[in-house]
Specification:
By secondary structure, the protein is α/β, with parallel strands linked by helices. It has a single domain, classed as L-arginine/glycine Amidinotransferase, Chain A, CATH 3.75.10.10. About 20% of the residues lie in helices and about 25% in strands. Strand 6 and strand 7 form a beta hairpin. The protein is globular, with a radius of gyration of 17 Å. The N and C termini lie close together (about 10 Å). About 45% of the residues are buried. It binds citrulline. Citrulline binds next to loops.
Amino acid sequence: MTTVTIEQKKRLFCRLVPDSYAGALANFFGSGPTDIELARKQHQTYQNALMDAGIEVHVLDADERHPDCIFVEDQALFVDGEVLIPNVGAPSREGERPPVEAFLREQLGDEKVHLMDSNAKMDGGDVIRLHNIFYVGKSSRTNDAGIDEFRKFLDRFGYELRVVNIPGNALHITSLSSTPTDDIIIAPEGYLTAKIFGELPQGSKVVMMPEEEAYGCNTIGLPGNKVLAAKGYPTVIKFLKELGLEVVEIDMSQIRAADGSLTCMSVFF
Ligand code: CIR
């Protein structure tokens, strides 16, 4: 979940890996998970790294009927204390929503939880935030009606929405980019260009990474000058270290196998 600033990152929720995880959708980076126990270990390492960074981690139960249920980022768009629950783009994932919605209602109160109209489609993974600009990926999962609903939601905060067309060989905007600090977007050559992000606030920049490190461009910037990064993407990791960040590298092999990245497995709220 990349719709919060680093200072706002205090607590999050994630969801455990079901036995049925081998059946998760895999059409882009991955060809399907093969080792559920390893996926569980990687998920636990992820939770531990977040807790080590002082984040309060809430864990929701797995749902065997929904192999993709660990990818909670897609189910909720949290902005400054309010949440928009989108209609996710993949029909097989619609049933993941009730426990996520119930958890957020319990935590935030009904008045902070908003729903999209039924024809609007959007995955939470199609949003990144740089200061008061929200970049929304127009992708196979997110349609114009979904983007319009999100724009209306952002209007209540006075924030700007910019649309980024996601190439057909990628899932989401978060599959390709992230903000390891509040001032920097990293994104891969070959998929995106710096230009598509438009004019940025003073002091902010887009830094391009090699195309073959596209997966590594999904990172989680954390308080205390820390950042979570996927293991195995040397240019990205070197860049993050040169920024003076403490880089916590996580083996993501079985998560990548289902097209999931670091941000996909949690929602800060
Ligand atoms: C899917 O295709 O929906 C899942 N296998 C992966 C979702 C990854 N979520 C994300 O990028 N936010």
